[in-house]
Design goal:
Elements: H1 2-30, H2 47-64, E1 91-99, H3 107-117, E2 121-125, E3 141-143, E4 154-158, E5 166-168, E6 181-187, E7 194-201, H4 209-227, E8 230-237, E9 244-246, E10 251-253, H5 257-268, E11 271-272, E12 285-286, E13 294-295, E14 298-303, H6 304-307, E15 310-315, E16 334-340, E17 347-352, H7 357-374, H8 379-393, E18 396-401, H9 410-425
Parallel strand pairs: 1-2, 7-8
Antiparallel strand pairs: 1-16, 2-4, 3-4, 5-6, 6-7, 8-14, 9-10, 11-14, 12-13, 15-16, 17-18
């Protein structure tokens, strides 16, 4: 009786496995495409699925002899790839701002400073002239005072790889004031919203109150309009002192008349003057002859939601990025790095090594020798002689633009090393 019972149990188990195997074979024909007609024969079965089915079928047949049940599992189907544009990763956009107090003999110092930061956007106030173009950057979007003998003048430029994505914003006459100094540019991002960057130079505290109020009202109107279309970043010398208190850094600034008006604008428009929250420096203007005379009148302000994307926020009190000429500016440089989705175009640019001093000396000697040997030459021949001599002496350099992280040159490493030595001495 016992032996017959065991035989019957094994027979039932074998029948169950055979039934599963039969269902599996039927499922194999109809499982792969719910949209396909069930009577249509599949001409190209999935090779990976077929091999697994065969292996698991053998397992069932083998385990029938051992009175074991094998649970059958179909392999997971891979998720189909969706073709389309990939979402762009966040890019760091570096903004450099300074009050030059006259850019005339400071242009080379400015170029060295923006190269050191590897700035994407450069904004300057009190240029007091039409600034010359910076190598590697687009033309300046600038505004200069019509009156002679005065200060003022503002300008903004961006790296060449952003040049095809930037436009200057035309301000409607009803949204501005007479002799108001502000320039806005828009930058296309990889998302629907634009990025608007502005540079502003405000009226002095001694200006009539109604003039200052009208100008801040016009500035508010511009910001409201641009906020509806995208992110905003506004930099500049506002000539206004808002209240700033930093106990740990011994910073105490009370609010001025212009500061009261500016503070009201910031609150009404839900803006954030992020430069006053810098962990590196606070004072933006310092009398170089009387260092105790200092104030915070230069600011970087933006929407609160944009301020959450800040990676770097620096007020350069140490003077590493301060621009200098015969006299250095009395304003410290402000720098901020914002994360945003901007498509930087990568391209290679070939330029002459214009800073090759030894090469220029050799060029002058070789060119004179070639001209003596060739005698009189027409324009085309003279052009070829000059180009060939430049290649032999000066040489060229190839620059790749649009990198998110720039490779440090020896000059930049040297400058950073000098900065570190200065910090250690202090």
């Amino acid at each position: 009786m016992t032996d017959r019972g065991c035989t019957a149990g094994q027979s039932q188990e074998k029948m169950k496995n055979q039934k599963k195997l039969k269902n599996m074979k039927n499922k194999k024909k109809t499982e792969h495409s719910p949209c396909r007609n069930t009577t249509e024969k599949r001409s190209h079965p999935n090779t990976h699925t077929k091999s697994i089915l065969k292996r698991q079928t053998n397992e069932i047949q083998t385990n029938n002899k051992k009175n074991k049940t094998v649970r059958f599992k179909l392999p997971k189907r891979k998720r189909p790839r969706i073709k389309g544009k990939k979402r762009n990763a966040e890019t760091e956009l570096k903004i450099f701002y300074v009050n030059a107090n006259g850019l005339g003999d400071k242009i080379q110092s400015l170029k060295s400073a923006v190269d050191l930061q590897d700035s994407d956007i450069v904004a300057v106030v009190e240029t007091k002239q039409i600034p010359p173009r910076l190598e590697g950057y687009t033309k300046w979007f600038s505004l200069n005072r019509k009156k002679t003998g005065g200060g003022g003048g503002i300008a903004i430029t961006v790296k060449e790889e952003l040049g095809n994505m930037i436009n200057q914003i035309e301000i409607a006459p009803e949204e501005t004031e007479k002799e108001m100094e502000v320039v806005w540019v828009e930058i296309d991002t990889s998302v629907n919203k634009k990025l608007f960057v502005g540079v502003y130079y405000g009226k002095q505290e001694k200006e009539k109150l109604e003039v200052v109020e009208r100008e801040f009202a016009a500035l508010s109107s511009q910001i409201i309009k641009l906020k509806e279309r995208g992110e905003i970043v506004l930099v500049g010398d506002f000539n206004a002192k808002i209240e700033v208190v930093k106990e740990t850094e011994n910073v105490h600034q009370t609010k001025s008349r212009n500061g009261e008006i500016m503070d009201q604008m910031i609150k009404n428009l839900d803006l954030n003057p992020i430069s006053i929250r810098s962990n590196t420096g606070s004072w933006t203007r310092v009398n170089r002859k009387k260092p105790q005379e200092k104030s915070i009148i230069d600011y970087i302000i933006m929407k609160n939601e944009t301020s959450l994307k800040i990676k770097e926020n620096v007020v350069d009190e140490e003077g590493i990025y301060r621009i200098k000429g015969k006299n250095e500016t009395d304003h410290n440089t402000l720098m901020v790095t914002v994360q945003c989705q901007v498509n930087k175009v990568k391209r290679q640019i070939t330029r002459w090594k214009t800073k090759n001093k030894e090469g220029w000396k050799e060029f002058n000697i070789k060119l004179a020798q070639k001209l003596d040997n060739n005698g009189e030459a027409d324009y085309d021949k003279l052009h070829d002689i000059i180009i060939n001599t430049l290649n032999e002496t000066i040489g060229k350099i190839t620059i790749t633009t649009g990198r998110n992280k720039r490779k440090e040159t020896e000059e930049i490493k040297k400058t950073k090393g000098e900065k570190k030595n200065d910090e250690n001495q202090v």
